[in-house]
C-alpha cells in the first residue's frame, strides 16, 4: 500500500538496493546472495521488505528464472544512481584521495571480456585514478613489464609454466569449442582455429593433438578473440578456449567427440615491485574481482 501523503515517505535502505541490483544483474537470487555475502533466505527477505515499502512487485519469478517487472526496471535506474552517489560521498571521507595514472596490460581475450567490468567498477570507487590499457600478447606484455613500460599486467600461462614474480589469479580448463550443431570436429584433417605463436591455449591444444596422433590443419588464425569466435560460429573450425568463454551458441567437444583433453592454463598478474598507491589500488581491485569469479562464476 502506498504511504499516505500526510506521513513522511519511507527511506530506502541502500543495502537492500545493493541486493536488488545484484539480483537484477545476475538473474539469480543465489548468485546475488554470494555477491553480497548473504544467505539466499536473507536476500529474499530483503526483496520482500523492498516490495512491501514500494507496494509493487519488482521481480517476476518462476522455477527457472528471475526477471524485472516494469516497476523493477524503473527502480533499477534509480537504485544504481543512489548507490553511485553513496559511493562518491563515502569515498570523499573514508577512501584516501589517491591520484595518478596506472599503465595496465592485458591479453586480448580478457581485455575484451573482463576489463570493461573491472574498470567501470574501479572508476566508480577511485575516480581520481586514470587507467591506461595496453592490449597485446602475453609474451609482449611480459617484455613491456621488464622494460618498465607497464605497472601491472595480466598474463596467460601454460599450466606447466609460470612467469617469474607472477601471482596466479585463476586456473581453468582449456576445452575444444565448436559450433552448436556443427560438424567441423568430424572433418579430416581436423580444421583448427588458433592464436599466434606464444599463446598458452595454442601450445596446449597442439600438444594434445600430437599426443593423440590426430591429423589437423590450421584453417584460421587470428590474434583476437572475435576472430576465433567467428571461425567457431561459422563451423569453419574448432578452437581451444577457456571453459568460461563458451557462449550459448557453442558446445564443449569432449573425448567422446573424438577430441583430446587439453588441460588447464593459468591467468596470472604481475605487479611492478615499486608499485605506487594507485597501482596497488588497481591490483587489489583485480584480485577482488577474480575472488568473486571463483566463487560465483561471474565477473
UniProtKB/TrEMBL annotation:
What does the UniProt keyword field contain?
Answer: DNA-binding, Transcription, Transcription regulation
InterPro entries annotated for this entry?
Answer: LTTR, LysR_HTH_N, LysR_subst-bd, WH-like_DNA-bd_sf, WH_DNA-bd_sf
The record's section on SUPFAM superfamilies has: Periplasmic binding protein-like II, Winged helix' DNA-binding domain
Task: Kindly list the GO molecular function terms attached to this UniProt entry.
Answer: DNA binding; DNA-binding transcription factor activity
Q: Which domain of life is it from?
A: Bacteria
Keyword Nucleus annotated: no
Q: Which Pfam families match?
A: HTH_1, LysR_substrate
Q: Where is the HTH lysR-type domain?
A: 12-69
Q: What family is this?
A: Belongs to the LysR transcriptional regulatory family.
Record's protein name:
LysR family transcriptional regulator
